[in-house]
Amino acid sequence: MALMAAAGEITPMPKCAIFADTQDEPESVYKWLDWLEKQLPFPVLKVTRGKLSTQALKMGTTRDGRKITKTDIPFFTLSEKNQIGKITHRICTKDFKIEPIRKAVRKFANVERGQKFVSVIQWIGISIDEIIRMKDSREKWQTNRWPLVDARMTRQDCLKWMDKKGFPKPPRSSCIYCPFHNDSEWRRLKTQEPIEFEKAVQFEKAVQLQKARSENFTSTPFLHRSCVSLDKVDFSTEEERGQLNMFNNECEGMCGV
Ligand code: SF4
Q1: Counting atoms of ligand 1 from 1, which one is nearest the CA of 173?
Q2: Ligand 1: which residue has its CA nearest to atom 3?
């Protein structure tokens, strides 16, 4: 979407693009961003609330001395009775994507406190195959627009557009350990970015240890939907199983694009 805007194929020219950094994206995404910035006639604002994985491992203590961890990421969980569950709230998206972007937009566009009129149009780069992620803005001063949906472009169309222009294939942006990865993304990470995959494996082990020590979490968290340790999952049969990508209904287009 940014490159289409730069080429004048989506108008008007944006004033800026925003990248909300969880500091846990794979190396390929940071390299891609460096390249992308050089192609654009408008600035890319980078905002961050710190490193999400560090935050997720923090242990706090309640007033009565109980050890607790904040559950920041939508892990899959295995209960003591071996039942698979899922943490449904996505504090990570809210705290590390939506809020930092909202603050950056307010500041960049000089939005006044209590402003009731629209002065910002925010473009979100989801394609038509992710249409269920379209959500209206919660802010009175902002309206959302989805140029790739307006152009009826699928993810595949976007890749074809990139190819036609001679641009490299972009990586998918998301945290390396995101539990919303489908098996093809895990497989890609494992085979093409093994160092990043290993970071996800180590993160899962660290989270499991931390949650076991805490007194507010009785299940064991996992990154993969099977609740098998990531380094033991067989990612080879997703197509045969016709597995769905659960990411599509999440994140309002703030993660994974
Ligand atoms: S990519 Fe996944 S883990 Fe990262 S902020 Fe989004 S939902 Fe959370």
Answers
A1: 1
A2: 178
Whether 111 lines ligand 1, by a CB cut-off of 6 Å, is no
Instruction: Please write the tens of the pLDDT for every residue from 106-157.
Output: 999 999 999 999 999 999 999 999 999 999 999 999 999 999 999 999 999 9
**Cα–Cα distance list, 213 to 85, 166, 220, 244 (Å):** 20, 51, 11, 33
Which residue's CA is the closest to the ligand 1 atom numbered 2? 178
Q: What is residue 71's predicted lDDT score, i.e. its pLDDT?
A: 63
71 pocket-lining for ligand 1 (C-beta < 6 Å)? no
Tokens, residue 212: 């076991």
The whole model's pTM is what? 0.88
Q: What residue's CA is closest to ligand 1, atom 1?
A: 174
